[in-house]
Amino acid sequence: MVRDIQRSISPRKNCLPSSSIPKSAQKAGLATVAKLRKSRSSNVLASEQKEKTFGKDILNPSDDYHDSLVSEKDENMQKECINLLRNKQYRSCEIMTMFHISTLKGNDEKTLQLKATANEILGDSIMHQDQPSRALSYYQRAASNFRSALPPIKRSIGNVLHAVSASEANLKLKESKCLSKIGNTIEATSLLESSVPITHPLRTFAISMELGNLYMANGRPTDAKRSFMDALSRNPYAFEAVEKLVLLNAERSEVMRVLNVALKKDQNQNENQIPAEGVSADFDVPVSDLVTAYFYSHRSTQSHQLNALSQWKKLHSEYPQNIHVLLQMALLQTRNPALEPSPNAAKVTFEKIRARDDKFIEGMDRYGSILCQLSHVTELGQLAQEFLNCNDKRVESWSTLALYHEACNNIDDALEAIDKALAIDSRNAFCYYLRGRMLQSQHQPDIAAMSFFRANEIEKDLSHYEGMVLSVLAAKRYKEAIAVAKEAMHYAPRDCRSLTLVGLALSKASMSSTRDSAVGKERAIKALRKAISLDPFALMPLLELVDLYIADSNCEDSEKILLEAIDLGDNAFLKSPNTVGNSRLMILQRKLGDVYAESGKFVEALTHYHRALSLNPNCPDAKHAIEKMEKAIRGLDASVDEDDRANYSY
Q1: For residue 551, what are the contacts with CB-CB under 8 A and spacing of at least 6?
Q2: What is the pTM of this model?
């Protein structure tokens, strides 16, 4: 009885036994079912594709905006709006789309979809006219229309804040970019975090990159690393993500692991795709070599930076026309000139970039800093004018102009240009460094220290540490200077410059206080001597060590150190004459004159001052010292003021 009931309520698969149906009819039925399934799956794929193409990035207008239309008139009007947007006629597109929105009546599903599309097009056209606040309001209307057009059951599934389609996720990205543009980075971050979290299936490469940049702007480095890693896993050729991960001190091994997985996945996809006729699916990009060079370039040790330079040179030999490789090489040579035997190596590399593309601006403000250091004022002015004429929306154009004003001793104009550069990019470390240097020259050490600190917060570099130490020493905050110098030592333990900062801080602190001054001087001398052993051509530790010996009335050791340095410089200059070597010898001759003057050897002092003047006839310090020595020799003024000792530029 139970079995009979179960048979009666269980669904029957066929009304007739299969044995009673002819085999030809069975085959025909199976073929019909297969066709129906194929048709249904193709319709699903088509709807999914249509959903994905709705609402592309604002910089790449949609090729296929949603085409759920009410009438032929609406269809034609929407096509014309899209056509104007594609042809970058943004003002005309804005006007036309406003007419289009005005004709859309009702709140049925198709009309709401049309309204969502029209509001998105309007937001794109307004955003391209640099009106982010207005564009934001239209993107929000588009998102609201899109949500209202969804069936109630789909709206209630999952978290109500999460995006339910690729179209809505892309609209949230556009809203976030608008909020970021108007300065609301925290709100922009929160919007993307709630709409498309990192585990969300609608998370895209563009969303991960945008969130990474927002996290960096909001001071959330851990979240930024995670977001850039996610972006890299989606696109292994996102070199911008690699650069950001380097700045965030990510582990190279972890980045390489993510890259290898992404490259393997990309390779498998290329193998499964059928390339177009005459086009190969494979292409050669040295991703691993580039990542290694990026990471080693920003390591603090000399050995890593030498490996990085070798890697960039290898890439340059393989890809001689790649300007990006040349730029990275030049930036590394600028950051650490001791890597090359020639002090003009960075300048030569920048000139190669200019020879290949004289309109290239990225990173070229470092070339301007080299021209400023060499006092090539006319060439620097021409460079700034070229950059401003080419693109006055680039940070480098204004920072190069600031360098020109600094070279002309117009510090107020230079600071104004730096402010304009920072208004374009508030996270440019080099601009904060320049600002600190200029404020330091204006005897504002406290404000200068803040600028150097901000530069180092964005990108750790020994030049930023040096600025901080010199600024706090000028403000007579010796304990703070020692703490910053030790932090620099921790950052670059085997670098001449970090050891010099430790020796400099200890030296100034010992001179300012009688308490434990002997111990402080001994430690300072030890650090400075070690720095000189690492780089015998470094001026800063040498001159500071000489000052320490002079303070202890130890002129004999001062003379010995300077004579050895001059001999070393003479030999190097004879092998490879250059402006930097000439300037270094002039400073050493001037300093040796001071040592002889301190010990009362006025004739020897006068001889070395004349040698300094012969190396640079326009040196005012040498001229002034010669006048002082001539008076001292004649007996008119036998004293040599301590204040008259040159303030050497290291």
Answers
A1: 511
A2: 0.76
